[in-house]
Amino acid sequence: MQIAKALGAEVTGVCSGRNVELVRSLGADHVIDYTQEDFTAGATKYDLIVDNVVTHSFSDYRRVLTDAGRFVIVGSNNDGDYLGPWPMSLKASIYDPFVSQNFGFMMSSMKPEDLATLRDMLADGKIRSVIDRTYRFSEVPEAIRYL
């Protein structure tokens, strides 16, 4: 969200009520508390949806994407599933050829120039790291559960 905002995008953040102020402080132009409102039921159309949990059907996402919009899966809500986001990513790849919008997933790769861009954005204050708690190494399982 911060990167999109730093690059000039109008950003809508969707989060729980406890995170509304944090998301707003990170630069979101609009914030939707998903416990109070379903953004896929609204009339607003989005050019891009980046989803970390995939809690709606693809047809719900299609309804709120522009005709040439893009839906990108970054993660999923498959708690305890060793396949993680892969089933949803595969589904998106199969779904994609049959709709006007683009459905896909993000696979990251570390490129020195991208890391330099992030470093510069951090140094310039355009983005900031959010660390709300820390754990000792012996508490890794607890940290992962929290995440």
Structure description:
- This protein has 147 residues and is of the alpha/beta class.
- It has one domain (44-146).
- Helices cover 32% and strands 18% of the residues.
- The protein has helices at 2-6, 20-25, 58-64, 86-95, 112-123, 140-146; strands at residues 12-15, 30-33, 46-51, 65-73, 102-105.
- Strands 3-4-5 form a 3-stranded parallel β-sheet.
- The longest helix has 12 residues, at 112-123.
- 14% of the residues are buried.
What is the averaged pLDDT score?
87
The DSSP helix count reads: 6
Strand order of the largest sheet: 3-4-5
What is the percent of helical residues? 25-40%
Order of helices and strands: HEHEEHEHEHH
Intertermini distance: 18 Å
The total tally of domains equals: 1
Alpha-carbon Rg, integer: 17 Å
Kindly name the structural category.
alpha/beta
- Rough outline: globular
Poorly predicted runs of 5 or more residues: none
Query: Strand content of the residues, in percent?
Result: 15-25%
**Main β-sheet, in a few words?**
3 strands, parallel
Q: Care to count the β-strands?
A: 5
Keywords:
147 residues; alpha/beta; three-stranded parallel β-sheet; two-stranded parallel ribbon; 5 strands
Secondary structure layout plus pairing:
Blueprint: H1 2-6, E1 12-15, H2 20-25, E2 30-33, E3 46-51, H3 58-64, E4 65-73, H4 86-95, E5 102-105, H5 112-123, H6 140-146
Describe the structure concisely for a colleague.
With 147 residues, the chain is an alpha/beta fold. The protein has 6 helices and 5 strands, in the order αβαββαβαβαα.
